[in-house]
Amino acid sequence: MFVSENLGVNEKGHLTIGGMDSVELAKEFGTPLYVMDEDLIRKHAKAYKNSIDKFYGGNGLVCYASKAFCCKEMCRVMKDEGIGLDVVSIGEMYTALKAGADFDKVCFHGNNKTDEELEYAVDLKVGRIIVDNIYELERLERIAGEKGVKVGIMFRIKPGIDAHTHDFVKTGQIDSKFGFALETGEAMEAVKKAIECKNIELKGLHCHIGSQIFDIAPFIEAAEVMLKFIADIKKDTGYEISDLNLGGGFGIMYTEKDDPVPYENYMEKVSVAVKESCEKLGIKLPYILIEPGRSMAGPAGVTLYTCGGVKEIPNIRTYISIDGGMTDNPRYALYKSEYDALVANKADKSKDTKVTIAGKCCESGDLIGEGMPIQTAVPGDIIAVCATGAYNYSMSSNYNRIPKPAVVFVKNGEARIAVKRETLDDIIRNDI
Ligand code: LLP
After folding, report:
1. Where in the chain is the domain with CATH 2.40.37.10?
2. What CATH architecture does domain 7-37+298-427 belong to?
3. For residue 386, what are the β-bridge partners?
4. Which of 70, 278, 362, 386 is catalytic?
5. What does pTM read for this prediction?
6. Cα(209) to centroid(ligand 1), Å
7. What is the mean pLDDT of residues 41-58?
8. Residue list, ligand 1 pocket, CB within 6 Å
């Protein structure tokens, strides 16, 4: 059994990704290699989009959180599926621009946007800038004024919801660097100030409670808190907020321990709760935005490596050394994230051993996982690590001056390079 639906085994006993032989892909493009299954990405995009159409009358927008996996080809696929983008930096905006994104469907996030980034976003006519703090509101009012335009914003709100996930990826609680707190009154103050701003149009409110969440309950709770705040704003100021952005955070399967909710169910359940709350509170139904990142890209990706050696330390552990590691996947080093791995050229064999997969950096913590069930590997085998489509390529680095792997998209039995493998000249490109 595989963690992603697009994985299988062919007659040679090789792992297949979107129907393509992973061992052949490794041979053709080299390793390490990120492989992304475009059909699965598109399937996820459609599932989210259809869920808004089906359960919320199409009154909303899916914005893919591009921090999960950003390159021009991914932005193009999203545009083609009618999906907007959540961007968090000038680099992501530039990528979106070069991919031909519709900027009215872009949300620009960040807890410390620079003036350069704000000006860039205003020039690109980003549909919604998610304002994180009062200084940013003031700077944006000034920048928009200088440019003679009115800018659409949302406020990032901390709804005070505890999402049951890793501390580093929790964001909705009061002790967070992101956004305005409700409890202290700072959120209401900011709203009143924005209403007074000449060059700002307050479109809505945003919250994002965390990532890799399997429960629907905290999303519903967050939506209810936000709607209550929208009602309070109406009562206090008469101003009607039109948009509600509920962020992303929907969990995926990394190992068999994970039990994700079908993507459609989020909007189904959240829609019911939103409609009930709005009726109770006497406010109009908001335009809803959601920002899935991991769940859009994660299951579609597999990373392929070549095993360079096996070190068996009797009574302690066995290390499998791969030609990548924390530079292409830092998530175990950062969060102790678990992954499912297999020997791609022995995918039809049973997993008869447990190993530690070690990267090639000069760093003991450079591991992909410990105690991972896998087939017995020998040097030259292709090691596949599954569900690496999100927060792997996007968090990759050049530590130890290791070039970043290529990204290949597979679709309809064909593979094409979406991001070229870095060369040694890329490594010294900016050296003087
Ligand atoms: N919207 C906002 C405002 C966010 O901050 C995030 C993720 C998302 C949407 C998308 O969340 P997702 O659907 O991907 O869970 N590097 C970490 C994850 C950090 C998530 C940051 N924000 C990891 O590798 O697990």
Report:
1. 7-37+298-427
2. Beta Barrel (2.40)
3. 302
4. 362
5. 0.97
6. 9
7. 97
8. 65, 67-68, 86, 109, 169, 208, 211-212, 247-250, 291-295, 331, 391
